[in-house]
Design a protein that fits this description.
Length: 502
Amino acid sequence: MENRRCLLKMVDVAKSFPGVKALDGVNFSLEEGEIHALVGENGAGKTTLMNVLGGVLKPDSGQIFIEGKETDISNPLVARELGIAFIHQELNLIDELSVMENLFVGNEPVTRKKTIDWRAMEQRSLEILEKLGLDLDPHQIVRRLPMSLKQMIEIAKALVFEAQIIVMDEPTSSLTEGEAEILFKLIKNLKSHGKGIIYISHRMEEIFELSDRITVLRNGSYIATKDTSSTNHDELVALMIGGDPGQHFHKDESLRKDVVLDIRNLSGHDLVKDITLQVRAGEILGIAGLVGAGRTELLETVFGIYPPRKGEISFLGKPFKPSSPRASIKAGIAYVPEDRVAKGLFLDFDLYENIALVKSERDAIYGHTHLPKMRTEMNPVIGTMGIRTPSPRQQVKNLSGGNRQKVILARWVYAGMRVLLINEPTRGIDVGAKSEIYQLLKRLNREGVAIVMVSSDLSEIFGVSHRIAVMHEGRIVAVYDADQTDRQQVLSNMTGLIHSKV
């Protein structure tokens, strides 16, 4: 990197808000043709630092140099003029417009008569798409494109105004593994053309696959910058959380007791075919599989979202039919969905309202709802779950991803569930919060809760599960004790290369 041009240098950047020092002397640099990862827990200062770079926030002190020249980035327009582009998690596209209209929205080329120069727009769009290796029709309506290509268009927009510094914030959060691979190729293409990329992600495997350097922030402070080739996962986690990451989750085999949920030859959704599984009190059964293998559909069938067509389920030793989510909840079966924002929470409700939701509805049927008493009962639950909030009356939309996940878990703890179906429990959550979620799952195990966990992170599957069930094309093709198999064997089953005897 020594001979490459320095695109960006941020020196001793500080920013405070009332009662909070969000940035305390942070340093960061970016070279030409470099992918520099910025990592840290939620609240570490990543967003604040990028908002300073983008002109959204003015720093209290510190210096910013763009290509060696000290610069005052007073607003987002100045940042754009300096060649700084942001690719956010939430895409900023207009679905009903074409690809080229989205690329040039607000920046359309015009003719001498001051009308839109459609021919120039099409030609320039083709040049940009070709440069990125994208075989797209500029006239294609964006609504019809998959999420991965929409993400590419968002990146292509940055090239319209010739951005040299591109900030990517959790760009794969809504992508499948296949779509993410397409994005990675595009990012490497940008790097080869000399672009500097600041890459923010909680996914360690992405950080190590893509980045050249990694800068760690913690509690608003600069901790370290490491060459990616000279560090490892454990060292990064230690830097992020301020100590030895240790073992996230110790699996106590003595907790595994009687069968709570017994599924026999269950079919329903097209991706749930002849499933047979047993889940014990005090265990975590991990479900591994590729996207489209039927993992989510299995959980949602057991929870009653999809009606079972055949097969039998026994719950606590008695026949049970998951005819609806309400029937499953009444029985003591809980579900934490993958998309906690759209399907799991009411963002404009406070903690009390979100946590009480299930128990208050259930108790209301019997005429026992007493809200002041329920709030008193919920306070210990909020404390035990470690939800960080200035007040239980705080709206959930103001909480971090990890705390939102804890709110959903608190809802089911308060309702007293016996089986927890949990889908991608730590997706989009920082390392410290992941450890806390794992400890909460461990505590639920100690209390005898049976947990069925779907995760796309094989490290999580192996690290947390007592047993691993592998799904392929709607079927369970193998079940292993987690300590008696390895990633290669599980991956081979996931991809259909081998089918072990269940």
